[in-house]
Amino acid sequence: MDASNRSQSEPDGTQHPPVTPGLRKPNRRWTPLPIPTIPTPPPNADNYRPQMPHSLPSAAPPVAPAPSDFSHTQERLRQPKQTAAEKLAEKFCAMEELLKEWPFDTVGDFLQILFYNPTRSEPDLRGTTHASAVSQFLRGRTSVRMCDILPLMYYHRASYPSSQAVNSHEQDLRFSTSIEPERILHARPFISTWAVRLVAAEARKQVGRMANKSSDEDEHQNQLRASTNGRRETKVVTWNDLLANFNMNRIHELFGLRMPLPIFLTEAMAAPKSNGVYFVRKRRPHPMIQVGALASFIISRNRYANAPLAMVFGVFFFACKVHIDVKRVFCRLGYSVADSTARDALVSATAADFVVLRTTVADAEEREVTEGFMILDNCQEYADVWEQGIGRQSQLKVGTAGTYVWADDVAPGAFDAKPYYDNVAKKERMDLTTDSLFDDIQWPHIRRVIPLHWTRVLVEFYTGFEPLLDGINKMFRTAPVALHRMREGRKTRCQPLGTNSEHSTELQGMARAVEDFDQQIGIKTHEAGKQLHWIRGDGASFANLHNLSTYMAPLYNFKNKISTPEIWHTGATDLNSTAANHYGPATSRDPSSLSRCSNVAGFKRPSNVKSCDYYPTVRNFTLIWTAHVLDCWRIFFGVDDLQKYLDDLAARKTLPDLPVVKRRINSVGG
Q: At what angle do helices 187-211 and 260-270 cross, to 10 degrees?
């Protein structure tokens, strides 16, 4: 072999690779490679063949290796994989050695240095590795986070004192509100007490924000001013604040956004839970209870923070004529404002909204459109004199109350006066007969609505049909059953007018009452404009208004006034007519008479069928009609017991679904 290709060796026997001519020798020294010791083949190794490292696995069953005399001297380069228990034991051993040798006095001393947090004015004595490690851990960027460490500390057996410990009294200090956390030694009662202080401070802070005055541009005001002294421009309460913006569900959502911690705490205290999930009861729903409690907390912090609930309750108590002692009790509890504040709020709201009302009506007159209509009715109140005196006696106070209501979604030209006068001049009502009224009824629509009501009765009767109720309600709200439905979210805007002392049951009293209301609104009564003014009321008010428009037409007084009976009064009149025609004798045995049905159902028969109490009579009629409809369903199914028949269908899981119910509707409707 040539000398240039021979291996070179050091005096200590270290071998180097051969040097190739023309190549530069590297600057670094080569790491010596281990030379394996090749054992001598045994005498019985004639058929020995070493297994190739990249040979494919064979499909044949493995053959047990023959005993070999080879001696392997090369050590394993990779350690075997440790189990979780071995890793944990190794870490515990390392921890034991670390605690024996570290320079800290206690674990607390170590943790205090580890989580050292210098202020901006203090020098940071921590090293880069120290600061980075703590920062990564506190930011949750490590595999083990604070959510894993804190429960270990809180639930550790040593964090809670035993009954035989010297400080066993600390067992009763968990979530303590009277002991300072620094005086508690054990970790579990300390952490809970410290957390109570932290949560209480944050809850107080959030409630305090709701008690402060919000900006005038804020949609949700925290404070509603009932009056102002005029020295400073202050926004006072309006009817829009008291009526349109008041919604308990909306207030609950607002509280959840602006003070989520008190909402969370009160929900945990008030809400019922099933399978770990809160649910809302139909009676006494906990969101309403939360709103009432938190609203009283807010007004307790600031007596002017009455917007959520207190101002509305004060006006509500005034409208219901609640006794003054009841008002004082609820004011004391923080649920209502004082009675004087509620009265000032009513005066301020009426004065502020009257300005808006008159401006709106004047603008509508210029544009020759109608913005709303008026509802009026007579009112009476008997004023008793409880303390007798000279010139003092009980008396009946009589007057007329009115309300202006804004009309929404009105078609253009709907209240133009000229088409109305032209139709009146044609005198087409002279040809009006009972048959023509009968022909004007939309009978196809009636045939769609009545069977749907019958099906609703069946669905509400049996609990197994409860999943179908939403579909039935949706059919009522959509075409072709719903002909003209108000848009979703619409709320009626109204403006109460000042009550006068006129007798609306008299013709002259009605004239003076209407003139007073027109003056409040800003309408010129004695001028015939191009728009009709719609007034609604009960039967007597309708008759007087009709006579006024007839008698005063030549003088252009009340010429543009048109009146219709109010819906409730129309329904009450029809109810009295039905009762007078179908009740029959009180002791009637006719099963089709309302008297017989009322006696069976346990309802009291009206003493005067021509003037019934509205709501008890309506409940009576509804129950009797429902019973008759269910009996018709029993005949339709051909069974004797409707409840048992439906229970059998439910047991066989053959209750009809909504498409089948729709077909039944068509069959019932004929």
A: 120
Band the pLDDT of 122: cuts 50, 70, 90. confident
Q: Are 197 and 285 in contact (CB under 8 A)?
A: no
Q: Which of 77, 76, 72, 78 is nearest to 36 (CA)?
A: 72
Section 198-209 average pLDDT: 93
Backbone angles phi, psi at 14, to 5 degrees: -75, 130
Three-class SS state of 534: strand
Secondary structure of residue 377 in the 3-state scheme: strand
**Calpha distance 372→405 (Å, rounded):** 5
Report the Cα 146 to chain-centroid distance in Å: 34
DSSP assignment letter at 369: -
Buried b (16+ CB within 10 A) or exposed e, 506-530: eeebbbbbbbbbbebbebebeeeee
* Amino acid at residue number 34: P
- Give the residue from 562, 558, 556, 514 showing the smallest Cα distance to 535: 562
Determine phi and psi for 320, rounding to 5 degrees: -85, 0
Written as six digits, the tokens of 272 are: 């019922």
Q: Directed axis angle between helix 658-669 and helix 443-461, to 10°? A: 130
The residue to which tokens 């005096």 are assigned: 11
Average pLDDT, the chain: 83
d(CA 236, CA 234): 6
Quote the CA–CA distance of 193 and 203 in Å, as a whole number: 15
Token pair listed for 52: 């190739």
Rounded alpha-carbon distances, angstroms, from residue 619 to 332, 441, 613, 629: 39, 27, 10, 15
Distances (CA, A) of 174 to 155, 171, 186, 189: 13, 7, 10, 4
Beta-carbon count within 10 A of 344 CB: 19
pLDDT in tens, 565-574: 988 888 899 9
Specify the residue for token string 């929900």. Answer: 267
Is 265 exposed, middle or buried (CB count within 10 Å of its CB: 0-12, 13-18, 19+)?
A: middle
Q: Is the pLDDT of residue 469 over 80?
A: yes
Domain segments of the chain as ranges: 101-196, 212-350, 370-384+393-435+488-564, 444-480+570-669
Buried b (16+ CB within 10 A) or exposed e, 620-651: bbeebeeeebbeebeeeeeeeebeebbeeeee
> Is 146 in contact with 140 (CB distance < 8 Å)?
yes
pLDDT of 264 reads 94
